[in-house]
């Protein structure tokens, strides 16, 4: 397990149950969220995705932590209303409660505007925005189910947004539109669910080391295969090595150690914020979009306009 996630107390999410979408990658925010939730003492986490090829290794990693958390793999097309309801009912039938829902599934593939057709745009919006609506609508209802060990409604819904939602130069119009939309659904979502004691927040990372490039390419290939074969596709499992290679060849080149805001964080850095938002440590945090980009959006043009940024001298060096 990633060292950052090992510091959580196992009483933090004791007896809590929920799920994470987009958790089937070999390396990314979704997988790290499952590990972090398990480390914080969650009773059960449903790791959902279109492909479950990496779930066995995820379950093995959780067992290696000596955690009692039960990690269940579940096939889920996050755009499908009936599938979403079905998986939520499975959780409730088995555990009688739903406490956290991470709407994390997404795709990242830069397509220039002149090459973007309406069908592609609609698909991206469906994967990233419609899925969050389903999380609010049905995840919220699931959190209202009560049981002997959960006598009152409540829970935490968290969506993975992006700084692409507030910046025009991070990704394409489809991805940026979807991420802006989910960030702006958080406030009305938090109001609509307030009477049910359900908090709604979003995390907006910058670039994060993950398998999103390789996974998106495979997902798009599967979509094309399904279209060509009348609905049949093969969900190939992406390895961590393939994921790292694809990332380094594209977004990895943007990393720099010159300034803090130019570093590219590991996925567990974002997942740790998610665990915080799932727990009572964040009881007063509701309706917020938490930017976690190392200060990238705050930096603006940085040294392009203000000149080189020099490191501070130690206090002992002052005269």
TrEMBL record:
Domain of life of the native organism: Eukaryota
GO MF: oxidoreductase activity
InterPro entries: NAD(P)-bd_dom_sf, Sc_DH/Rdtase_CS, SDR_fam
Gene3D superfamilies: NAD(P)-binding Rossmann-like Domain
Keyword NADP attributed: yes
Alphabetized UniProt keyword annotations: NADP, Oxidoreductase
Family note: Belongs to the short-chain dehydrogenases/reductases (SDR) family.
Protein name (record): 3-oxoacyl-reductase
Species this chain originates from: [Torrubiella] hemipterigena
């Amino acid at each position: 397990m990633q060292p950052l996630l090992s510091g959580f107390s196992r009483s933090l999410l004791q007896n809590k149950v929920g799920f994470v979408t987009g958790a089937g990658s070999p390396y990314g925010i979704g997988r790290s969220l499952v590990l972090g939730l398990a480390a914080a003492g969650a009773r059960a986490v449903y790791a959902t995705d279109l492909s479950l090829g990496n779930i066995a290794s995820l379950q093995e990693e959780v067992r290696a932590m000596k955690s009692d958390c039960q990690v269940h793999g579940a096939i889920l097309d996050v755009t499908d209303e009936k599938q979403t309801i079905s998986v939520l009912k499975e959780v409730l039938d088995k555990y009688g409660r739903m406490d956290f829902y991470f709407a994390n599934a997404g795709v990242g593939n830069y397509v220039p505007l002149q090459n973007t057709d309406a069908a592609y745009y609609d698909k991206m919006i469906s994967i990233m925005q419609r899925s969050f609506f389903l999380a609010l609508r049905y995840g919220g209802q699931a959190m209202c189910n009560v049981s002997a060990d959960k006598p009152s409604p409540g829970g935490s819904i968290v969506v993975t947004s992006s700084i692409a939602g507030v910046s025009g130069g991070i990704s394409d119009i489809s991805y940026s539109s979807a991420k802006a939309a989910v960030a702006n659904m958080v406030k009305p979502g938090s109001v609509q669910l307030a009477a049910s004691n359900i908090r709604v927040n979003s995390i907006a990372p910058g670039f994060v080391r993950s398998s999103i490039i390789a996974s998106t390419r495979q997902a798009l290939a599967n979509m094309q295969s399904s279209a060509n074969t009348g609905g049949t596709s093969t969900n190939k499992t992406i390895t961590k090595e393939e994921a790292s290679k694809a990332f380094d060849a594209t977004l990895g080149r943007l990393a720099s150690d010159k300034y803090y805001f130019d570093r590219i964080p590991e996925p567990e850095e974002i997942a740790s914020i998610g665990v915080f938002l799932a727990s009572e440590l964040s009881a007063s945090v509701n309706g917020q979009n938490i930017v976690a980009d190392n200060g990238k959006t705050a930096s603006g043009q940085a040294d392009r306009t203000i000149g080189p940024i020099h490191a501070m001298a130690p206090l002992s060096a002052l005269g």
